[in-house]
Automatic annotation (TrEMBL):
Keywords: Repeat, TPR repeat. It holds the Pfam family TPR_8. TPR repeats lie at residues 23-56. It comes from Aquibacillus halophilus. InterPro entries: CellSynth/LPSAsmb/PSIAsmb, TPR-like_helical_dom_sf, TPR_rpt. This is Tetratricopeptide repeat protein.
Amino acid sequence: MQTLEDIKSDNKIEKVIPFIPEGDFYFTKGVEAFQKRKFDIAIKWLKKAVEATPEEALYHCQMSIIYTEIGAFHAANQILTEVLSVNGDSYIDCYYLIANNYAHLGLLQDAKKYTESYLDKAPDGDFREEAEDLLSVIDIGDDDDDEWAFEEEDELLIYQETAFHHLERQEWEQALTLLEEMMSVFPEHVSAKHEYSFALFFSGNQDEAIRLETQWLEDNPQSLFCHTNLAVFYYERNDLNKSNQHIVSIKNVYPIHEQQKLRIANTLARTGHYKCAYDRFKLLSKGHLKGHASYFKWYSACLYQVGASTKALSLWEEGCKKYPFLTKEASPW
């Protein structure tokens, strides 16, 4: 039986919505670019198609599929929800596409709800087999706490995204306030406490941040969060010996998830291990990390340090264009 990770990794939405002969020129170009996996170009063409014929739901649906492919699951679902709102069940496949995006986000209750809606409305639909597979691996069962679970997942997601927003912009005080509340509401959410110590360190309370991470490391000596944070903390305090002790602990770690891969790459870059960091950044899927300004910042730093200054400048400029707040910082080299 497939695992949820199998479904997420194997069930890439490769199906292209069929081309309508009288469709717009822009749409045709967008589909061609999508098939060649040139996603940035595909998005540009599809945006032109939507602007030219905004009432054509097909163009919106194809745009959502591209967003799914690059990991912009929220943006994809926003488009699909609007299509259903305007067109009703004329585009039943939207239910499955929404469910798939929720599964990628880990919002399994929502994924189950939309998968069941799809199977109810289209028992012989194009995505029937995929929907049944997805439903079988979610297998969360029905209980009296379903409504509460929906609300809890949504609330956690809001906390995560808001905290991430402040952390990326180095708005430490705002992040600390939010993360303190998040830890109170979701005490079992491990990453929140480590993001808290990170914000604590850079807000000026360095000793307490190190004390917390050291304590947590004693409880879990294999913690990637602890090692990456302590490596950065000690490097910032010019204690390179202690910093390198933690770098040694992560150099042979190769996580499966992109977020953890990025954490290691960023840590290596922040602590001056540019060649090692460069090797890690090359393994990352850029399409799934476009929401991370830190990717552009630290990867461009690595590129510069390994002699690829032209690529470094190009990536830095791309990052500044996508995230204007980066322009307030000096270039990372």
